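REQUEST FORM: STRUCTURE PREDICTION
Request ID: SP-0412
Submitted by: Lab K.M.
Chain count: 1
Length (residues): 165
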Amino acid sequence: MTDPGLRYASARGPDAVPGTIVPRTILLATDLTPTSLVAETEAITLARDLHAELLIVSVVDPRSLRGPRGDYVQRVDQARQDLQARARGLQDRASMVGVAVRLLIWEGEPAESVLEAATAESVSMIVIGSHGRRGVDRLVLGSVSDRVVREANVPVVVARARPTT
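STATUS: Completed
RESULT:
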């Protein structure tokens, strides 16, 4: 029995290779900041080339809404509206190349939320960016992409921007 999130490419047009399994839904985990552009572009390209739906998942982390003194500097509903507004351009980019796209905005810890969304939506692949943190920053801040790679039940593509020299 095959994974319900996958289907055979032979039903996908002239370039399909019989017997090849390709994703039905690709989850793009993004914080919708400029550092996510590489992952966003990769996900759109994969979805277009594989004729898959693109599910954009962004997460409001309530911990990030607090200021230095612990008081809230932004409400969760405001953060959600900001993400929805920033996602419009990404949705338009995907639609312009013929990719069916949906947006989910979850609240919680980012890696956990991405993993839960992947399971809940039965995706067959995850694309996520990496900020490329090293050393103490990585130890203190953790790595969402590392946790997703370790714990996901589906293939994960980690897209990282190349440093400019």
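NOTES: The radius of gyration is 17 Å.
Reviewed by: T.R.
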